[in-house]
Design goal:
Order of helices and strands: HHHEEEEEHHEHEEHHHEHEEEH
CATH superfamily: LCP protein
Number of strands: 12
Radius of gyration: 47 Å
Distance between the termini: 129 Å
CATH class: Alpha Beta
Strand order of the largest sheet: 9-6-1-2-3-10
Number of domains: 1
Number of helices: 11
Structural class: alpha+beta
Helix content: 25-40%
C-alpha cells in the first residue's frame, strides 16, 4: 500500500508542474519522523601547551632548603671558635749560644719555658713560667736542670727536643701538652723589630734601662728578657711575661693591625712549631676576647722551691710539689 499525500500540490496555473516530493511518497510515517542523530565531533584535540614553571616570589631568602645548611654552617663556626676544648701549648726560648751550634739548630737549653693554656669558650688564657734551674728527672740522663731536656734530645736526634720536654712536663707537672712553639733567642729581636718596637713599663732598672715606661727595639727587648744582673731567675721570668703581655696588647690595638702581616712573616721565619694553621684563628680570637688584662699569668715562686747545691757544685732549685701542684691544678685543671 502506498501512502498518498492528502494535500496534493495544486496544478500550476501557468501550466508548469510543481516538483513532487518523492521522499515523502516513498517513506512511511514512522520512517519520516525518525530522530536526528547528532554525530560527535571527532576533530583532533589541540596539542598540549608547555607548562610554565611557577614564578618564585621575590624575597631576600633562598627558600626553606637553605635554612638547614645555614644553621649547620653557623653551628660549625661556633663549635670551631667556641668549643670548650682546652688547648695546652709549651713555649720555649732556646739559647744556642755564639758558635756553639750550626745555623738553624735548636741544640741548646730552653732558658725560657712557659706553659700556656687556652679555653676559647670562657674565654680563658693562662700561663705559668717554669724556672730553668728546676731540678727534675730527665729520662735517660738522671736528675738535671729542666732546661737541659731539649739540649740532650736535640744532641741525640735533631727535632726530638720538644717531645722530650713535653714528656718531662707531663711526668712532673701532670699537664698533657698538645702543641709546642720554640724560637732561638737571637731571632726574637727580629719579631720585635717587625712590630716597630714594643712599649713596656720596666719594673726596675734593668739591662742599662731606667725603670718606668720605655719603647724597646729588638736588641733592647732581648737584653731585657735575658738579663739577670739586676735580679734572679724569678725576676727574669716576670720580665719575660711583662714583655709578652705588652706585645700582645700592642698587636691587639687596631692601629697596629697594618703591621700584623710583617709580624706574622717574622714569626713564621723564626718559629718552630707544630700548631696547625687552622688553630691560629681560634687561638687568636680567644686572646682577643680575653684581652691582655684577662691573661691569668703566674710563675713558680720562691716559696715553691728549695735552693740547694748539687754534689757537682751546681746551684739549683728543688721543687716543692705540695705547693706547686695546687697552682698547676688551678690553671690547667685536674
Amino acid at each position: 500500500m502506498t501512502w498518498r499525500d492528502p494535500y496534493p500540490t495544486p496544478p500550476d496555473p501557468y501550466g508548469q508542474t510543481q516538483p513532487s516530493h518523492p521522499e515523502l511518497e516513498e517513506t512511511s510515517p514512522i520512517e519520516a519522523f525518525q530522530p536526528i542523530r547528532i554525530q560527535p565531533d571527532v576533530s583532533p584535540a589541540p596539542p598540549p601547551q608547555p607548562r610554565r614553571p611557577a614564578r618564585r616570589s621575590r624575597s631576600w631568602g633562598c627558600g626553606c632548603g637553605c635554612i638547614p645548611l645555614l644553621l649547620i654552617a653557623i653551628a660549625a663556626l661556633a663549635a670551631y671558635f667556641l668549643a670548650p676544648l682546652r688547648t695546652n701549648i709549651l713555649v720555649m726560648g732556646i739559647d744556642v749560644g755564639e758558635g756553639r751550634a750550626p745555623a738553624g739548630s735548636y741544640a741548646g737549653r730552653s732558658d725560657t719555658m712557659i706553659l700556656l693554656t687556652v679555653i676559647p669558650l670562657k674565654p680563658y688564657v693562662g700561663m705559668l713560667s717554669i724556672p730553668r734551674d728546676l731540678w727534675v728527672p730527665i729520662p735517660g740522663h738522671g736528675e738535671n736542670r729542666i732546661n737541659t731536656a731539649n739540649f740532650f734530645a736535640e744532641a741525640d736526634r735533631p727535632g726530638s727536643g720538644p717531645e722530650a720536654v713535653k714528656q718531662v712536663i707531663r711526668d712532673n707537672f701532670g699537664v698533657d701538652i698538645q702543641y709546642y712553639a720554640r724560637a732561638r733567642f737571637e731571632s726574637f729581636q727580629d719579631v720585635i723589630d717587625a712590630m716597630g718596637g714594643v712599649d713596656v713599663t720596666l719594673p726596675r732598672e734593668v739591662a742599662g734601662l731606667p725603670a718606668g715606661p720605655q719603647h724597646l727595639n729588638g736588641q733592647q727587648a732581648l737584653a731585657f728578657v735575658r738579663s739577670r744582673k739586676e735580679g734572679d731567675d724569678f725576676n727574669r721570668m716576670e720580665d719575660q711575661q711583662i714583655l709578652l703581655i705588652a706585645a700582645a696588647k700592642q698587636l691587639l690595638n687596631p692601629l697596629e693591625w697594618p703591621r700584623v702581616p710583617a709580624v706574622f712573616a717574622a714569626v713564621m721565619r723564626n718559629l718552630d712549631t707544630n700548631i696547625p694553621l687552622w688553630q691560629w684563628p681560634r687561638l687568636g680570637l680567644a686572646l682577643l676576647r680575653a684581652g691582655p688584662q684577662g691573661i691569668d699569668n703566674h710563675t713558680l715562686t720562691r716559696e715553691m722551691v728549695q735552693p740547694f747545691t748539687t754534689s757537682g757544685g751546681a746551684q739549683v732549685l728543688g721543687p716543692n710539689w705540695d705547693r706547686i701542684r695546687p697552682q698547676v691544678r688551678d690553671i690547667f685543671g685536674p
